[in-house]
Amino acid sequence: MTRFYVGPMSKNVVDCVIEFNEKCKSDIFALIPSRRQVEYCGGYVGWTTKEFANYVNGRAIIERDHGGPGQGIYGLSDGTVSFSHDAKVFDMIHIDPWRKYPEFWDGLEKTVELILSTYKQNKYILFEVGTEESIRPFSTLELGLLLQELWKRLPFYIFRNIRYAVVQSGVGLDLGNMINTRTFNEDKLLRMTSICEDYGILSKEHNGDYLTTTEIEARFDNGLDAINIAPEFGQIETICYLDAISEIQSNKERQTIIDKFYDICYESKKWEKWVGDDFIPEENKEFLIKICGHYVLASEEFKIISKMFPINSVIREKINLRLKELYLLL
Question: Same domain, yes or no, for 290 and 308?
């Protein structure tokens, strides 16, 4: 069973996941492109939906992460065009209308609508339902009601294509300090995973970044079936570049490259969602780079910098080290 769903933050991450699965002869790691990362019209990782699927070529399970309205590059879109492309080439789709439809019954109606329309395009496509805590907190009762209503409203042959439901036990991300925030709620996790089991659905939690292996193991021991990890893998690559830049002897040259990296990140505006109103970018350049470096790794502007530092082997070694740590939990 696939335990870890990894965000394809860069080509290095994708290659390492594929190679690790091939080495282990298993699908222990899957890939979860968000609409901002990989989309039919492009994304910040550098692939379209079709290009990404062709590159992976069945060597890892691919699930669309947070598919639906209010997501993606064009946040106001209803997500139907994106789903039409996903259904042709992905293995699974996370149906997530909750950012645009936070009221329970509205979100439920939209979930049913999107599952039915997507199933018409591909009867073999699998689904994930619900959403993460940072988008819309779910109580245990609401999760139970969501699965109950989906079971009642969907034909059984479609309901059984729901592979995962998102459970929430208290996780959140602080990219700048590279920590997982909030407090683990063991009791809530147990109740939510039990509800999933009652409906024959696997449980999955999002935002598993920066958790120690002990913290992840505690979640698995309490019934969790799978977990998403994304920005952490992109930050591994960002930190490797910052480390390489820090080794430049000339202060002037080192600062010039940091300034260029900072400018690329700053202009992307991807850092804005991770900081407060009192954040002063020009006084926290490396902090800002840590937050948003992974968003620009595939950009033409950053490629000029990356060519100065041939450190792919170092990056891949560190990514593989984290994959191995996770694999050893099984």
Answer: yes
User: By C-alpha distance, which of 240, 179, 172 is closest to 210?
Assistant: 179
Domain boundary among 178, 202, 229: 229
Q: Are 81 and 40 in contact (CB under 8 A)?
A: yes
Contacts of range 18-27, beta carbons closer than 8 Å, 24 or more positions apart: 18/56, 18/59, 18/60, 20/320, 20/323, 20/324, 20/327, 21/59, 21/60, 22/59, 24/327, 27/2, 27/60, 27/61
Look at 74-88, 165-179, 306-320 and tell me which has the smallest mean pLDDT. 74-88
- Provide the residue range defining the domain that includes 264: 235-312
Confidence of residue 103 (pLDDT cuts 50, 70, 90): very high
Q: In this structure, are 175 and 105 located in the same domain?
A: yes
**Domain co-membership, 256 together with 209:** no
Q: What is the pLDDT of residues 39-84, one digit of tens each?
A: 999 999 999 999 999 999 999 999 999 998 888 765 557 788 999 9
Distance CA 325, CA 307 (A): 30
- Do residue 195 and residue 293 come from a single domain? no
80-89 vs 104-121: helix axis angle to the nearest 10? 40
Domain count, the chain: 2
